[in-house]
Amino acid sequence: MRRYIFILLLIASCTYPSPEGERAEGGEDRFTNKTAISAEGMIASAHPLATRAGVLMLEKGGNAADAAVATAFALSVVEPSMSGIGGRQQIILRKPDGTLFGIDATTQAPLNYDPEADPEATDGYPTIGIPGVVAGLTRLLDENGTLPLETVMAPAIEYAEDGFEILLGQERMYMIAKDLMAKYESSKTYYFKNDSMPYQSGDIYRNQDLANTLKAIATGGRDEFYKGEIARKMAEDMERNGGYLTMEALASYEAKTARIVSGSYRGHELNGLWLPSFGAITIEIMHILENLPVSGYKGADWASAVYQAIELAYRDRGRQFNDGSADTLLSKEYAAELASGIDVSDNTLDQASSHLPDSWTKTFAHTTHLSAADKDGLVVALTQSLGPIFGSKVAAPGLGFVYANTMGPYLGNIGPGERAASHISPIIVTKDGSPYLVIGCAGGARIITAIVSVLSRKIDHDLSLADALASPRVHPVRDTIDLEMHEGWGWKPEIKEDLENRGFGVKENTAVGRFGRIHAIEFNAENGEWIGAADPDWQGSSAGPG
Question: Which domains does the chain have, with CATH numbers?
Fold first, then answer.
């Protein structure tokens, strides 16, 4: 039994609002499908309502940039624990002529930030930096979209104002973060029923303050958020509570042009983003695997190869922060040298565990990802996040959104004016000059390991996109291999035993959504169709026009 069944059962009873006259042909049920095929474009995202928002834009004649912006704003409403307009974002897009472009909209520490004032703060106002999502989305739309901002934001405003049904995945996030969120009255106001208990699956959730904030952005654009009344309210909130955001800091924020990093894997071009994204590490792992006969590896051989390649590449994560280090990380010769030390039949990397960051042992993963494509070949991979679940745990009073966690130990104690690096890694894969895969992941430290697993399953084992997403994954945790072991599917017990006999420490992990949540699109160049697939271990969906 595949994991598809689990999530379909979660969302089968959900109802989704639809504006009068906008009900798509085929009904709203199509937005809950895990897989879809369309020649007119495709959206894959972490929530059926967000997928619906993107598809509506394509059906209005918009392109993939319009659809991505609509989907991202919708995710900010329906997945408030994972992302929001108070958070960070990384975007890579490929135009029909093959041009690649990236946007870095990562949250940033204000210049007045004092790292020594609250060095151990893991939540609250001392962790709040300058939000980047609104700047990133408006830049994406201004430079690449075709529809007005008010149009692409309409679904998100609708969901916030009219309400939507809480899914089981969101209930789990509420319960994990509830104790920390209860410290802040504004968070209790927005995310606790009657200020006492978090919302549960099946509840209808409305947030009029967020709807009003989104309406102001829709009419006033990014300046309303960074220089207008919204900015003033954020700055006043910070001044009252010891935060660092000021009107000057907000007005100075810029969604920067991100550096593209590229590599290749068995005839496929891999394109990602340089820091603060971890695209170079993702590509380095694939370069290491390219030196091994992975297409012939099954079971424990494949798990061992992927585990060791990840460990070796993560020894290099510090190199990313040195100027010019991308050349080494992306070098095929260097990857071959690293791969020469891999023996899949034996654990030869016992000491590598010391190179894995503390964030790899965090409890539950976070973040959200969407992939978008249109009939003309414009594709967008977009990942956005608040940091940990519900970010700083502080909601902006009167504005209805959560501030991201930016400063402090969670992302590595950045300094004033700096942007924190993270495992975010949206990737666009091309083949023979055409798009092949648009892919990215949510899941904190497990983002990269999930993407690598799916790319290998798809390219090395020639699986369908849906089957590549459904295949069990591995993840390094200290000196052990974390194995995805759900009842009824996942790794078989004999694989665990085989790995242990090879000298590996092995941990069984049965948690839902624990090995990253990928939402991806494949292009079939032979018939011109787009194939969407949402991670079967989460509540997302994929759909295309018509």
Answer: 7-256+365-421 (no CATH), 258-362+444-541 (1.10.246.130)
